[in-house]
Design a protein that fits this description.
The protein has 77 residues and is an all-alpha fold. The protein is built from four helices and no strands.
Amino acid sequence: MPARKRVGLSIIVGENVKRLRLRANMSQTALAEAAGVRQASISSIESGDRGASMMMLMAIAKALGVSSTSLFKEPKR
């Protein structure tokens, strides 16, 4: 089976989840527990390999103490 191509929005969301998680000094496991998802899901989202539902992203944002829209902002480079 061919590898799935990472999509721009998935990469942006993944980078933001990782940046905000690290800023909150949380491990992937701690974030997953706080958001009610599996650690493997957090890992896949952060790497841009998996998209997430709006419900999952809202739970992640709440666990991180940020607005859900902050997960979609393109990072300054």
